[in-house]
């Protein structure tokens, strides 16, 4: 009674209604002022964070280990202790793509930016040779390797320059080793210019590429599809030109421009993936609605199933990527961890289809034969939708 009578005579500052508790029964505004001391704000922040953490603890383990549990709880009305389906899917989607982006960047950094093989020299055999004859043999082996790379005729001018500088370094290392062994040094060949045949071959190879690029530019000046409005055609034309520009910079540009184009395309792909997946989720819910039309469930129920299914897949992608990165980091220090984490990755990958099958069985409550048949058809249709979505994201990313 004291709690009820403590609000007598108080009125809501927003709508003027008589207060009967801490919140107005008409507009919902709290009786408490937002102008509080700093320590009260810190206390509320900590309480909010701990409350969210509590929901995470109740949500993530069953999402990963109990197929269909969260969806059935949501249908039964027990929702307060769990994170909402869309928020759960949204956060896991962004987090998984962010970590996967980091992993892709680590792999992409090891690939030559313009796709051409890089020339590297290794003077360790020369520096560890025990006699002048071994020094000359090791030098000749390295020079033969450089010459084979030149003979391919695909090296751009900047890589040819690297080969010439590398040859000079090898000869200098050989002379230092010969001097240490008390033998006469060899003459260092002049590297002021590359062989004439190499220059002719390189220049002759660039002409077809330039001609092909100009022909492609002429063909892709504009996109004109009769049944599309002018705005859509203009947008497609701009995307096509930017696609061509990025790809040409990646394949034929100088190292700096090629690396920049590569990173721009990767960032574009990962920027386009989340919106593409958000479009894919309602499409997956439509598939469920079509295949379970006689179960008399609302589309919103199928959408919740789709949200929880994708949240699980994003969580699995996140864990698989983290395990892979951890394996790459630990393998040089302890090889056995690489094998153990590899088995864990395989288990996570195999758990994805098994989880989705069990989830479909528990939610829609059909026999195993019909569940397996519908699971196969839904999965087949979804794979094609996913491939189309990834293709769209790839094109939009390269044209970024």
TrEMBL record:
Keywords (A to Z) from UniProt: Membrane, Transmembrane, Transmembrane helix
InterPro entries: DUF3667
Keyword Acyltransferase among UniProt keywords: no
Regions crossing the membrane: 86-104, 272-292, 304-330, 336-358, 379-399
Protein name: DUF3667 domain-containing protein
Source organism: Rhodanobacter denitrificans
């Amino acid at each position: 009674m004291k709690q009820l009578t403590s609000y007598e005579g108080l009125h809501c500052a927003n709508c003027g209604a008589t207060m009967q508790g801490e919140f107005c029964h008409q507009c919902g505004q709290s009786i408490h002022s937002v102008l509080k001391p700093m320590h009260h704000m810190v206390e509320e922040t900590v309480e909010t964070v701990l409350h969210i953490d509590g929901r995470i603890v109740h949500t993530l383990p069953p999402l990963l280990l109990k197929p269909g549990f969260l969806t059935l709880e949501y249908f039964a009305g027990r929702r307060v202790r769990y994170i909402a389906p869309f928020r759960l899917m949204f956060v896991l989607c962004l987090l998984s793509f962010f970590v996967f982006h980091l992993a892709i960047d680590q792999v992409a950094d090891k690939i030559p930016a313009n796709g051409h093989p890089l020339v590297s020299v290794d003077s360790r055999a020369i520096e560890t040779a025990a006699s002048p004859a071994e020094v000359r043999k090791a030098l000749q082996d390295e020079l033969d390797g450089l010459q084979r790379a030149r003979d391919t005729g695909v090296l751009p001018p900047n890589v040819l320059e690297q080969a010439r500088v590398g040859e000079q370094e090898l000869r200098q290392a050989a002379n230092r080793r010969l001097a240490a062994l008390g033998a006469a040094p060899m003459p260092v060949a002049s590297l002021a210019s590359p062989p004439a045949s190499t220059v002719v071959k390189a220049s002759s190879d660039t002409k077809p590429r330039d001609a092909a690029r100009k022909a492609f530019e002429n063909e892709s000046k504009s996109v004109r599809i009769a049944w599309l409005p002018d705005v859509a055609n203009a947008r497609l034309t701009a995307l096509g030109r930017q696609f061509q520009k990025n790809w040409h910079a990646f394949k034929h540009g100088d190292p700096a421009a090629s690396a920049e184009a590569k990173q721009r395309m990767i960032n574009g792909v990962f920027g386009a993936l989340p919106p593409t997946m958000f479009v894919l989720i309602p499409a997956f819910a439509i598939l469920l609605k079509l295949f379970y039309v006689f179960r008399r469930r609302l589309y919103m129920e199928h959408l919740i199933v789709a949200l929880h299914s994708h949240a699980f897949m994003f969580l699995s992608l996140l864990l698989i990527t983290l395990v892979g990165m951890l394996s790459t980091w630990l393998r040089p220090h302890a090889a056995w961890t690489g094998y153990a984490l590899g088995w864990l990755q395989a288990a996570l990958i195999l758990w994805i289809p098994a989880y989705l099958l069990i989830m479909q069985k528990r939610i829609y409550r059909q026999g195993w034969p019909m569940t397996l048949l519908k699971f196969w058809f839904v999965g087949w249709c979804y794979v094609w939708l996913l491939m189309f979505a990834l293709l769209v994201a790839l094109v939009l990313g390269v044209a970024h």
